[in-house]
Amino acid sequence: MADLADQIFTTVKETGQQGAPLYLRLKKTIEDAVQRGIIGPGDALPSERDIALKADISRVTVRKAVQDLVKGGVLIQRHGSGTFVAPRMDRVEQSLSRLTSFTEDMARRGMTVRSEWLDRGVYPPSPDEMMVLGLSAKELVARVSRLRIADDTPLAIERASLSTAVLPDPEAVTTSLYMALEKTGNRPSRAVQRISAANLGEADARLLDVPAGSASLRIERISYLATGRVIEFTRSIYRGDAYDFVAELRLGGSEAIGDGQ
Questions:
Q1: Three-state secondary structure readout of 59-98
Q2: Using one digit for the tens of pLDDT, what is the confidence trace for 31-80?
Q3: CA distance 170 to 104
Q4: What span, in angstroms and rounded, lies between the C-alpha atoms of 203 and 193?
Q5: Per-residue b or e along 132-141, where b marks 16 or more CB atoms closer than 10 Å to that residue's CB
Q6: 149, pLDDT greater than 70
Q7: d(CA 179, CA 160)
Q8: CA dihedral defined by 81, 82, 88, 94, rounded to 10 degrees?
Q9: Which of 106, 153, 172, 219 has the fewest Cβ atoms surrounding its Cβ within 10 A?
Q10: Per UniProt, what is one Pfam family of this protein (predicted)?
């Protein structure tokens, strides 16, 4: 371990980021060591004391750099065991141009999918649900919430809301929500999604098996039938270290003509 500490941290003062704070220079050194394979997935990091001594910096500086890397998913900490390089995860790439279910997306990739149900019930609607789904205060809303897991890795938390006129029994959803809706002729044909970045709170981070404060993608989706009726209101949280959303952009005809190119 001492040799590893020497190998990694003698470059802290030699890094090109001479104007950067020490903790950022240390953070960059550890990231580079992981990327170059000097330390690999599952390897233990030297102790804060060893790092501080070898790099001639304070343990407070070391702790700040390590905590930033834990939040970024580069390192993981195990209580009573130490700090380790996080296992590498193949990122999931999802197109924003196709309206498919999580189950269908993962099946196309040959991944084994399962869910842990967080909630399947009927409730009075919230103000947001009333507004989006067009419900009155006297109507009820069906909520289907679950942790989505692919190849034993928790990837997303989905919380869907639908009118009970469409989904009277949430318990009837056993695998794919869209497959259940298709059976009753209510599968959505289009959707509008809003994606934003956010740091995970403790409860959601615990479900996704990542540290609190880790990066995530929050997605609010409103889905429609071909008639234009809103059918689904879903708020999802995806792990930021596991998901990439991809959209194909095309130059519009009028803009292309106007550019004269």
A1: HHHHHHHHHHHHHCCCEEEECCCEEEECCCCCCEEEECCC
A2: 888 877 778 777 888 888 888 887 778 889 888 988 888 877 788 887 77
A3: 20
A4: 24
A5: bbebeeeebb
A6: yes
A7: 14
A8: 90
A9: 172
A10: UTRA
Say if CB 210 and CB 239 are below 8 A apart.
Answer: yes
- Tokens for 194? 């809003």
0.70 exceeded by pTM: no
Mind listing the domains of the chain with CATH numbers? 2-85 (1.10.10.10), 92-246 (3.40.1410.10)
- Confirm if 166 and 181 have CB atoms less than 8 A apart: yes
pLDDT digits over 198-239, tens only? Answer: 989 999 989 998 878 888 889 899 999 999 999 999 999 988
For residue 128, the surrounding DSSP H or E stretch is: helix 127-133
Using a 10 angstrom Cβ sphere, with 0-12 exposed, 13-18 middle and 19 or more buried, the burial of residue 44 is middle
